[in-house]
Design a protein that fits this description.
The structure holds 2 protein chains of 2 kinds. Chain A is an alpha+beta fold. Chain A has a single domain (about 30-235), classed as 2-Layer Sandwich (Ribosomal Protein S5, domain 2), CATH 3.30.230.70. Helices cover about 25% and strands about 30% of the residues of chain A. A 5-stranded mixed sheet of chain A has the order 1-2-3-5-4. The radius of gyration of chain A is 18 Å and the shape is globular. The model of chain A has no long low-confidence stretch (mean pLDDT about 90). By secondary structure, chain B is an alpha+beta fold. In chain B, about 20% of the residues lie in helices and about 35% in strands. In chain B, the strands form 4 sheets. A 5-stranded mixed barrel of chain B has the order 8-9-10-12-11. In chain B, strands 1-6-7-3 form a 4-stranded mixed sheet, with no helix packed on it. A 3-stranded antiparallel sheet of chain B has the order 2-5-4, with no helix packed on it. Classes of the chains: A alpha+beta, B alpha+beta. The interface of A and B includes residues 119 and 233 of A.
Amino acid sequence: MGGYGDIEMIDENGLRMDGRTATDVRPITIETGVVPVADGSCRMTWGTNDVIVAVYGPMEAHPRKIQRQDRAVLDVRYNMAPFSTTDRIRPGFNRRSREISKVTSDALESVVLLEMYPRSKIRVEIEVICAEAGTRCVGLTAASVALAHAGIPMSDLVVSVASGKINDIVVCDLNKEEDNYGEADLPMGILPNSGEIVFLQMDGDLSQEEFQTAWDYNVAAAYEVHKIMIEALKNGGVN
Amino acid sequence: MSGNNNADGPQDSQTVVPGENLGQSNEFEAGHGIMIRNDNLVATKNGKIKINGKTVSIEPIHSTYIPRPSDLVIGYVEGCTNNIWFIDIGAPFNAILPMSLGPSKASFGSTRQVIDIGEAILCRVQEVEETHSSVVTMKGMGLRKIRSGSIDDVDPHLIIQLLENNQEHLKNMKEDSDCRIITADNGRIWIDGEVEGIITVRNSLNSLSNNSRLLEQGGVA
């Protein structure tokens, strides 16, 4: 959130720098089964973002102290490849990746039927190959597709979309410049069949009206993304 | 909220994804991969619907083997103590084979002399606890240590395809290869015979797996 700058990110016709309107989402493709050794996998591109997710398990949880007697544990690891951005990222975990792993795990725990696999572990590896903006949303959405592909029972899929504010206008699905120089960002995780919210964060300030607009944009976009996820899971190919 | 409702009710062989609403649950019972939410049938797995009488279930596209009592399984010995073998049966947890249920010649302290680590056995699941821990037995007709042939792995749900239509596919493979083929419920297949025959069967199993992948990927793989 760079705050106000002198960059005009939306013109008088309401078009953004990449030609999208306020409610447009960047192009999305989803491909399943990209990691043959994994139990389930998925590659998702969202604009320039490129994320690969592999799911392993259910397997015996190690070390034994992490086992839960009544349910499985989700071990989610979000990691950005060192070459995923123009500034090289130091390999390994950092505070940001730990935070995103935690919130992704929490969001997925609300849909995965963990009680069916007591004492087990389900490993979800999210690897960001190319990052533009909104990688946590892409990671969460792709993880939900990969879990479904692995045959893990789930009550619903999770769709994650972010909206934000640029030049005092609320827009959906921020790109890199909008994310860096915009004023606010509201990523949400939505269950498209029940309309429940399983993940919500906010960076920057939004008024009550702006918050409601961003919320509505996210919910509307989530249904569009959900259709692409269904298509990918039913046909497996690139959509 | 979402629009993927199924007003006509569940259809046989329809591909579904988790969370998909399959219509009212009044006439149907929820089977494997189905849950009931607000009197509606909801899919919890990605796969194809199977309707058997009143029961609606899902045959998943990918599956992990979950042991059930009386399943015939092929396992590998992963470790042992003086009187117990730990068997990898392809499930989330290793099964245990106590000496009392193992080969009769085993005596206390001689577990590794009878079945060593890394060796394969044909056994049957005797008991599964709520926590998915399982006990296997080698007491029963045909249950033994596997000393010859080859063991191949396929997805557990493909075993059902091999056995459907009165085991037609399996019988054809046996006739073509002149091999003895034993299919286990955990997706492992023991092929015993001449090397050429084993290769024929393995090629046939590979094409079965690839065909299932082709169907799964809508013919574009």
